[in-house]
Write a structure and sequence with these properties.
This protein is an alpha+beta fold. The chain contains 6 helices and 9 strands, in the order H-H-E-E-E-E-H-E-E-H-H-H-E-E-E. It has a single domain, classed as Electron Transport, Fmn-binding Protein, Chain A (Pnp Oxidase, Chain A), CATH 2.30.110. Helix 5 crosses helix 6.
Length: 217
């Protein structure tokens, strides 16, 4: 983290701790507030501010969580990409609901998101897929994500097989790879404050918009 980023992070941290969160106004836009916080985290110099915990639940009710990267956010929801046949992909197929947590420790901020999950279109997935490095695109074909791997040589052989297959041409989008969108039904903003009297502002989606409320720390 550069000196400039450090000062920016300290300024954002101090402002958040002293001022807290805005009032629970029904007209306030949680996606807009998330974008403001995300930009502050990005400018603070944090490594991978787009990192988020993704929690899913299997058909028999067993939860699991892992870190993934946010690749897009707008009024429709929060987008990430994965192998649809991975554990998280299978669990989202069985139970298409998820929870996300962003934690920007240096700013003493968290954002929690809960909602239904849908696949994005193949066209949207391919548009993002083309921005990845060629090696990452080859890797998406070679990896049977979450399946047992007895010997890493097998994976290396798969990488070489697909490298030759696509040599000199475009790397196609694997049919089992693409994006998911978490459509938020609930978003909570958490701002650390003195004496552990933290600020919590919750948004719950309703037909006519968002219901907002403060929560006890």
């Amino acid at each position: 983290m550069s000196l400039r980023s450090t000062f920016r992070a300290l300024w954002t941290f101090g402002k958040g701790v002293s001022a807290g969160l805005p009032d629970a106004d029904a007209s306030r836009d949680p996606i807009g507030l998330f974008k403001e916080w995300f930009e502050a985290a990005r400018q603070s110099g944090l490594l991978l501010p787009e990192s988020m915990t993704l929690a899913t639940v299997s058909a028999d009710g067993a939860p699991s969580a892992r870190m993934v990267l946010l690749k897009g956010v707008d009024e429709r929801g929060f987008v990430f990409f994965t192998n649809y046949e991975s554990r998280k992909g299978r669990e989202l197929g069985e139970n298409p609901r998820a929870a996300l947590v962003f934690h920007w420790a240096i700013l003493e901020r968290q954002v929690r998101v809960e909602g239904a999950v849908t696949r994005i279109s193949a066209e949207e997935s391919f548009a993002y897929f083309k921005t990845r490095t060629r090696g990452s695109r080859i890797g998406a074909w070679a990896s049977r994500q979450s399946d047992p791997l007895e010997d890493t040589r097998v994976l290396k052989q798969q990488v070489e097989t697909y490298r030759k297959q696509f040599e000199g041409g475009e790397v196609d989008l694997p049919p089992y790879w693409g994006g998911f969108r978490v459509v938020p039904a609930r978003i909570e903003f958490w701002q650390g404050r003195a004496n552990r009297l933290h600020d919590r502002l919750c948004f719950i989606r309703e037909e006519e918009g968002w219901q907002t409320m403060r929560l006890y720390p």
